Amino acid sequence: MQQRWLIAVLALIVIGAGLLTRRGAGPDLAAAHAATGSLAGKTIHVDAGHNGGNASHATEINRLVDAGGGVRKACDTTGTETNDGKLTEYAFTLDVALRLRKRLEARGARVVMTRTTSKGVGPCITRRAAIGNEAHADAAVSIHADGGPSTGRGFDVIQPGGVSGQSHALIASSALLGRRVRNALVKEGYRTADYVGKDGLDRRTDLGGLNLSKVPKVLVELGNMRNAADAKLLESGTQRARMADALATAIAVQVTH
Ligand code: ZN
Fold first, then answer.
1. Residue-wise pLDDT tens digits, 109-142
2. Catalytic site residue 221?
3. Whole-prediction pTM value?
4. Does residue 109 fall inside a structural domain?
5. Domain enclosing residue 116, as ranges
């Protein structure tokens, strides 16, 4: 008899604890639901670097354009590729960009893309910047992979260095976005570049896409295509998904703080 009572009391304790735990999880579940749509009303510009038709349209893409800060540069470039030629940068950047769009839209953001296929030419860096500006994007990210020395590894997040026409506030918010992207990639286990920049961060004033931006923007080189170990990562769909996760996390933090 005593044993039955003991079992009954224990059962009540277990049920009670279960109810308490469930009640305790209530606010967390509510927060998770709110987070799903937390980017509603926010606009993000996702810029997939280069394009599939660039290599066969040399005249168009080599045309010099005003890249801001007194710099004249080619309208666009072909981008790089892995040493075995199996993966082009333009294909890689589009895949990560589409994955990123999916994640941002799932959270309720409006996503403006530079391109959604690799069948076109360009657009010029001037147009790439204008797309984000015209959309009044809350944040913009240009996705690239580098063609660095074969011995160099890692990602590099390039922030605008600040040229005339760019406010201190814009440079500061871009720098913040850059650190958030860097931190999110490190958290996913990616290593910062050991051949360029410092601690995964860089600042440049010669990139039209950054110089001409009026919205917080960074350009991320997600790895070095010319390095065998990095190429392996960049070729992996699983890794690209994780890279897109990291970018989405960083952007979400940026536009909600
Ligand atoms: Zn590139």
1. 999 999 999 999 999 999 999 999 999 999 999 9
2. yes
3. 0.86
4. yes
5. 41-256
